[in-house]
Amino acid sequence: MNKQQVRDRIVEIGIVPVVRASSSAEALLAAEAVCAGGIPIVEITMTVPGAVEVIRQLQKSALENILIGAGTVLDAETARRCVDAGAEFLVSPGLNIATVEFAVREGRLMLAGALTPTEVMMAWNAGADFVKIFPCGNVGGAKYIKALKGPFPQIPLVPTGGVNLSTAGEFIEAGASALGVGGELVEAEALKSGKAEVIAENARKFLSVVQQTRSRMNSANVAVSFSR
Fold this sequence. Notes:
Blueprint: H1 3-13, E1 15-19, H2 24-36, E2 41-45, H3 51-60, E3 67-71, H4 76-85, E4 89-91, H5 97-106, E5 109-114, H6 117-126, E6 130-133, H7 142-149, E7 157-159, H8 168-174, E8 179-181, H9 188-192, H10 196-227
Parallel strand pairs: 1-2, 1-8, 2-3, 3-4, 4-5, 5-6, 6-7
């Protein structure tokens, strides 16, 4: 996929499953499970043992049309290793300009981490494709995303932290382009016990919330346009 196709896939699906696992085997199980649940996207964080090799294995796997990203990328050197392994997008928890600039040079999609308005502007101006707002739940959740969209309507925001089945719809309504979801989707206990079906069902539920919320918003927009 080229960068535009990667961007379109993330926006279309609206969910980026964040995989934090205690082993490579668990991470691979998680990737297979979210795909089975209808989300062909996975972010393998660098906190997973052997994370770069997991990315490499996923690229060679038979999982159809899976979009593989690297998460918790803290510097450009790590970004390089992930891209060499086949990562199609990069995600950072905070703003590292060198990493964003690397992604721009390599033509890879970048979700740069930020929290404050100043960081959001810096990430966007540096060339980030999405700005990941983390930890969003700790600073107001959906209300914070809505507040940021006021001055930054043109910047696609991806809240991470505090996103669960109860709040997912609120984040979409607030203007989030997609949602980063970790343990609420890829449950640690399910990974440890090998219960891929639990993760797959979580994926289906999150996907349903996003689709239903967007459908409701589109219907409301149509109604408003007709009323005018």
